[in-house]
Specification:
Layout: H1 20-39, H2 47-52, H3 54-63, H4 65-81, H5 87-98, H6 100-134, H7 136-147, H8 149-158, H9 164-174, H10 178-219, H11 237-263
Length: about 270
């Protein structure tokens, strides 16, 4: 069934310039993201770091389960808001620590909250202003996107070719409604999120089996100590194919409506 068009104006009424109060949240996020990327802090989230702290993490989770789950979701939301490219790895880590179901739900909440934060900041700061500055052609494209925002967003979320951070920004610049963005985001990221989380739950035992050899290698001063933990292994060809099929199905109502509009006979002048 075709989702009703998002009728939010592409260019919202208001001052033509940029207000500091509207730009400030977006600027803060951009500066914080640039600082984190420059320091490489997020790159420390890997299998080795997880293994080194596994005992402490497991002890904290055992004693403060809900607090640990909330902290994980909060960390995920922060990294998603900063548009850092570590969502898949973080989701796998959630599956390792909390199991596939709980880790997947926490990752889903974190990704949605973080994505919504950068969406709102971008829409408030640049949405209507940028479209106005880009000209009528871009405004027409934005209007076409907004007319079927839910279907397009669902496609972009499902197909793994489009980065999560980019799909947060495009709808904000086009003036998509918040409820449309959140609904399409939640539904669109469910399949891949739980696939990665359950993959993490599955490799937890493999990590435990490799832990003694890895720690012995580190203790001996080895420089090439590695763990058999490849996030790319979760993105199997079968999973990617399934996501692409779901994405194409999400666009089918738009294609059908376009086809009907093209095939419809022209109405005589003067008739509604």
């Amino acid at each position: 069934m075709l989702v009703p068009a998002d009728r939010t104006p592409i260019v919202s009424p208001g001052p033509a310039g940029l207000r500091l109060s509207r730009v400030l949240p977006f600027a803060v996020i951009v500066i914080a993201s640039a600082a984190v990327i420059a320091t490489g802090w997020y790159e420390r989230i890997d299998a080795a770091a997880l293994l080194e702290r596994r005992d402490a993490i497991d002890a904290f989770v055992a004693s403060h389960y809900w607090a640990a789950l909330a902290a994980f979701a909060g960390l995920y939301a922060l990294l998603a808001a900063l548009s850092l490219p570590c969502g898949a790895l973080l989701t796998i880590c959630g599956g390792v620590i909390f199991g596939g179901l709980a880790g997947g739900v926490a990752a889903l909440v974190g990704a949605t909250v973080g994505g919504t934060a950068i969406f709102l900041a971008t829409r408030s700061a640049l949405g209507g202003w940028l479209v106005r500055r880009a000209g009528r052609r871009v405004e027409k494209v934005a209007a076409g996107f907004c007319a079927h925002a839910f279907n397009y967003l669902l496609f972009l979320r499902l197909v793994p070719a489009f980065p999560f951070w980019l799909v947060n920004l495009v709808p904000a610049l086009c003036g998509v409604r918040l409820v449309t963005f959140v609904t399409a985001t939640v539904l669109g990221i469910i399949p891949a999120t739980f696939a990665f989380a359950f993959f993490g739950a599955g490799v937890a035992s493999a990590l435990a089996a490799q832990a003694p050899a890895y720690r012995a290698c580190v203790a001996a001063g080895g420089t090439h100590c590695t763990l058999g933990f490849d996030p790319g292994a979760a993105a199997t060809p079968q999973l990617i194919a399934a996501l692409v099929v779901l994405g194409v199905l999400a666009l089918m109502p738009v294609v059908v409506k376009w086809y009907k509009a093209v095939r419809a006979p022209p109405q005589p002048p003067g008739r509604a």
